[in-house]
Amino acid sequence: MQALLDSPGLMIVATGLLVGAAAALLGPFLILRRNAMLSDAISHSIVFGIVTVWLLTGAASGPVQILGAALTGVLTVVLTEALAASGRVRDDAAIGLVFPVLFSAGVLLLNLYAREVHIDAHTVLLGEIGFVWLDTVGLAGYQVPNALVWMGAMTAVNAGFVALFWKELKLATFDPVLAHAFGFRPRLMFYLLLFLLSGTAVTAFDAVGAILFVAFVIVPPATAYLLTDRLVAMVLLGVAISAFSTLSGYGVATAWDVSIGGMMAAMTGLCLAAAFLFGPRYGLIAGMRRRAGEAVASETRALVVHLAAHEQGAERAEENVSGAMRSHLGWTKAQARRVLLRGLDEGLVTRDGALLGLTPKGRAEAEALIEPWRRGGG
Amino acid sequence: MSLFALLADYTLQNVAIGAAILGAVSGVLGSFAVLRQQSLVGDALSHAALPGVCLGFLVAGTRDLGWIMAGALGSGGLAALAILGLTRFSRLKTDAAIGAALSIFFAVGVVLLTVIQRRGGASQAGLETFLFGQAAAILRQDLWIMGAIAAAALGAVALFWKEFKLVTFDPVFARTLGLPVAVLEVALTVMVALAVVVGLQMVGVVLMAAMVIAPAVAARQWTRRLGPMVWLAAAIGIGSGIAGALVSALGPGLATGPLIVLSASAAVAVSILFAPGRGIVWEAVERARERRALRGRQVLATLLRLAREHDDPSYPAEQGMLDLYHGLGTRAALERLEGRGQVARTAHMPGEGRHWRLTPAGREEAERVLAEFGGERG
CA spacing 20 to 30 A to B359: which of A199, B144, B288, B369? Predict the structure, then answer.
């Protein structure tokens, strides 16, 4: 057991998995509420909280630090909402005004008073997940990395919160007015969520830094959002995607000897790109194929309706020949040929010399299109 | 160091000129971004500059500002396209797209930073100064590059002023006029990337978002016209740039970025509180003045009604009774009216409290008030 805990690689991956899981549990609710950028604001401004708490109490990690600094995250949201509510600044600008102030103050305090601590400005931004195994505490007779202990606790709290308040969170996210009518306190839910997000950011920032944390909050749930319509699936898929990114990112980073945290976050981006392009329902390629399929189907429909319309009349010899496809339907020669061949393949159209006719199946389809109210009723 | 010696200092001159260039560009371009509700795009583009900075360094092999700026512009533009693509071709909303692009690009930048570090060039290259800015590192030749970019961006704004204005306020109308709206919108976004590039050395990639937003928001409070707003934003940007840069050059270990951002944010706070017509304090003062004026008119009207009821033009009304009429103290209002010569103290019977009567001027005013507000009940 101690051998496992002494293995740096294992500890790094375990911490990464916990950061990813804790963040991806909360991220979906932010994305669905269109408040994703609040995570960016919070993760920047907790720097101010971390430095302030450290200056006041000397605690560089642990519960005091997590609680104290997490309050700064909530303060950011309160200030942002107050600024937006004053009606003088729009929502997006309000976010972009508040967090830089707190972040700047935090960085200046760091530069002035905390030059000796392990939290320098560089760690604040980039984190150093590669060193998590250095800082350990005794727990049940084992030496366990500090980051792992607190990250584990934070993940458990987040999972408990989401599981316990699932119904409330879901309703507050999709229909806050109804949630309010039911007495579910949607605003309280939202603030609790942001408080936990701030706490997670504080706990995770040693490992991945302020900005990479944003990647873990936003990108895996956003990726999951491109793959599913169900909230449960979105949360679970988000956790799975961040686990995959952590593992693959660690592999690539050690192979190339580059930043582990950076590579893990970059891998979430790769997942997003893959879902964006190849997602089965909402992916770019699936969408293009669907549109192409619809275009093909409407061409075939145009052909059978055209043939049905002129089937009885004297103009049949003129209208229902392949040449008329081009002049009357405005198709190119290749297009007319393609549609005609498909109609023959699907057993909708018959050909008798130059003359085109409909099979019973093709006629039924045309009639259903021309007089849809007859369908079924006879 | 005396003020004169400060102004003559070569480095400080560079710093001040650089800060002025940055302030002008970010103020002008930020105005359009804020008005188009694209404030947080600036946040994303500035974070996304990091991988470009690293790539520029890797290509040039040294800390060559030209290459680094080109790289930053390239990766910023790419991030802008990624945001545009994600919002247009997937179901992700703007906030998630911005957050995803911001954090993924930054993660790639972190990975590239370690690549450079491994080559052993980062410390002497001072690439880390691009995170928070280091104004003292600015050279005279850097200023020429910054100035050229700024001139190009500001020239473009001057040249296409009418078009940009129309696209900002009424893109639909602009389209009916046949303007290439999409091209103009992309141009405005890419120009924000230009502002970011100019700010790399002064403010750094992390806090440039604030320089795009803050001067524009501050300027918006003072005027409702685009022209004055842009000029004012440029002035506020220049002022806060110089103020922050000078303070940072004086103190040891003070990063320039946070100080410039705090200066600009202070300008925002002052503007939101005190701007005439729109400021919070201004509005409170105005409201109090109106309340007082209303109280005065009410008291005059009451005195006139009492006078009419008693058929005595100079009917002496007791102050306590007037208090009862209005449900609150009327003394301040009566004394103000007395100062204007519209009421006068009058002796009634000794020991019966203070009495007031209308003067002829006050009666005239009270009749006007009653006529105006339809109060001919008395």
Answer: B288
- Kindly give, in sequence order, each residue whose CB lies less than 8 Å from that of residue A190, ignoring residues fewer than 6 positions away: A33, A172
How close A55 comes to chain B (CA, Å)? 18
Q: What are the tokens at B72?
A: 């930053």
- Cα-based angle A262, A263, A268 (whole degrees, multiple of 5): 100
Confidence at residue A299, expressed as pLDDT on a 0 to 100 scale = 85
Nearest to A229 by CA among A217, A241, A237: A237
Q: Please say if the pLDDT value at position B36 is more than 60.
A: yes
pTM, two decimals, is 0.85
Tokens of A101: 């102030």
pLDDT band (50, 70, 90) for residue B378 = very low
- For CA atoms B29, B33, B35, B36, give the dihedral sign: positive
Q: Which amino acid is at A223?
A: T
Distance between CA A33 and CA A193 in Å, rounded?
A: 12
User: Which pLDDT does position A378 carry in this prediction?
Assistant: 45
The number of angstroms, rounded, from the C-alpha of B248 to the middle of its chain's C-alpha atoms is 23
Residue B338's H or E segment, with its range, is helix B331-339
Q: Tell me, what's the pLDDT at A248?
A: 95
Is there a contact between A108 and B258 if contact means CB atoms under 8 Å apart?
yes
Residue labelled with tokens 């100019």 = B198
DSSP, collapsed to helix, strand or coil, labels residue A64 as helix
Instruction: Judge contact between A111 and B255, C-beta under 8 A.
Output: yes
- The confidence score (pLDDT) of residue A158 equals 95
And the tokens for A126? 């980039």
d(CA B147, CA B307): 75
Which one, of B100, B113, B126, B91, lies nearest residue B43 by Cα?
A: B100
Residue B328 in this model has a pLDDT that exceeds 80: no
Paired strand residues for A175? none
In terms of Cα–Cα distance, which of B17, B18, B32 is closest to B192? B32
Closest residue in A to B130 (Cα–Cα): A122
* CB-CB under 8 Å, A34 with B253: no
Check if A86 contacts B (Cβ < 8 Å): yes
**Residue-level pLDDT at B2:** 55
Residue A105 burial (CB count, 10 A): 19
- Please tell me the predicted confidence (pLDDT) of residue B149: 92
**CB B110 to CB A262 under 8 A?**
yes
Q: Is the confidence at residue B294, as pLDDT, over 90?
A: no
- The 3-state DSSP class for residue B358 equals strand
Q: How many CB atoms lie within 10 A of CB A122?
A: 14
B30 within 8 A of B215, measured Cβ to Cβ: yes
Element (H, E) at A154: helix A146-164
In DSSP terms, which residues pair with A341 in a beta bridge?
Answer: none
Report the DSSP beta bridge partners of residue A136. Answer: A145
A276 neighbourhood in chain B, CB within 8 Å: 85-86, 89-90
* Alpha carbon distances (Å) from A172 to A168, A175, A186, A189: 6, 6, 5, 7
Tokens 């089937």 sit at which residue? Answer: A311
What number is the ipTM of this complex? 0.87
Distance separating alpha carbons of residues A169 and A166, to the nearest angstrom: 5
* CA distances from residue A60 to A205, A209, B114 in whole angstroms, order as listed: 12, 15, 26
- Nearest chain B residue to A267 by CA: give it: B104
Q: Please give the single-letter amino acid code of residue B295.
A: R
Helix (H, G, I), strand (E, B) or coil at A258: coil
Mean pLDDT, 10 residues at a time, chain A of 378 residues? 76 91 94 92 89 83 82 92 89 91 89 65 67 72 81 93 92 90 89 93 82 92 94 95 95 91 93 93 89 87 85 77 77 83 85 82 85 64
Lowest mean pLDDT among A53-62, B110-119, B181-190: A53-62
